[in-house]
Design goal:
5-stranded antiparallel sheet, elongated, 279 residues, alpha+beta
Length: 279
């Protein structure tokens, strides 16, 4: 059986001007083309060749010797090249970019993002990417122990559980919901400390130490923005998230944390509709 999205060893059954045709058996009618530019020198009819099978821009089954970054049933970190009306297109190392439909996103992505995805075959028999199902594929046999510092990539959020993280893009981990992770986005690579290794091998993480460091940076940024407004910011922490984001580049939660820090340090006064630097 010709298997889309997988590596297969096939037989060279015919040579043509634009490449060679491959099949499982010499007499098979189902054949797939390996384009001329990829045909190995000296290859002959009857030779065996290991190829990866996908579909080209015209939706035709095609073979390649190029190693894709992702195969069926696996997961990988891929870069978002562009976002269109029906989804995003990812770089997976082949000539035709990999399509990520909106319905398979756990959060909206932007060009330049790097996200964890799996590969699946849709109802139209096309290879597509999905940001769903990563949890089931991550390993639970990490070498890490409590108090170890690890790096991981955020791949999904849950209101009930928290932020799901793939440590080393491989191991299953979670930042519990009681931890503030409002400043995180899908695809962020974070440094965190292991607080617990569960019986099933999954890791619990904390960002608390990092959050304090981030809060210092955010507080400095807020002070700088207030200075740009001649020492009086024309809105308070009660402003809409959109206004806060536009003027400071921070989420409302991060802004409120930074303002709280500055207030405790007696560097600002907070009014109903403004924030003023204390000179």
């Amino acid at each position: 059986m010709i298997c889309l999205g997988e590596w297969q060893e096939l037989i060279v059954v015919k040579r043509v001007d634009f490449g060679i045709y491959l099949a499982e058996q010499m007499e098979d009618e189902t054949r797939v083309l390996l384009p001329k530019k990829q045909v190995p020198e000296g290859i002959r009819q009857g030779d065996h060749l290991r190829v990866f099978l996908y579909k080209d821009s015209k939706d035709r089954l095609i073979a390649t010797l190029t190693e894709p970054k992702l195969t069926l049933g696996k997961f990988a970190v891929l870069k978002v090249l562009e976002v269109g009306k029906i989804g995003a297109f990812l770089d997976w190392g082949l000539e035709k970019d990999l399509f990520l439909p909106y319905k398979e996103m756990t959060a909206r992505v932007s060009a330049g993002d790097e996200v964890l995805v799996t590969l699946y075959i849709d109802k139209s028999r096309r290879l597509c990417a999905s940001m769903k199902g990563i949890y089931e594929l991550l390993a639970t046999n990490s070498p890490y122990r409590r108090d170890d510092t690890v790096e991981g990539r955020v791949y999904e959020f849950s209101d009930n559980f928290g932020a799901f993280v793939a440590v080393d893009d491989k191991y299953s981990a979670l930042i519990p919901s009681h931890e503030d992770h409002s400043f995180l986005h899908i695809g962020d690579v974070i440094s965190a400390k292991v607080t617990n290794v569960k019986e099933d091998g999954k890791l619990d993480l904390t960002l608390r130490e990092r959050a304090y460091i981030q809060m210092d940076d955010d507080a400095k940024k807020v002070l700088s923005v207030i200075e740009e407004f001649a020492g009086v910011l024309p809105f308070s922490d009660k402003a809409s998230p959109e206004v806060i984001k536009r003027e400071t580049g921070l989420s409302k939660a991060a802004f409120k944390r930074a303002v709280g820090r500055l207030y405790k340090e007696r560097k600002i006064e907070i009014g109903e509709k403004s924030i003023r630097i204390i000179r």
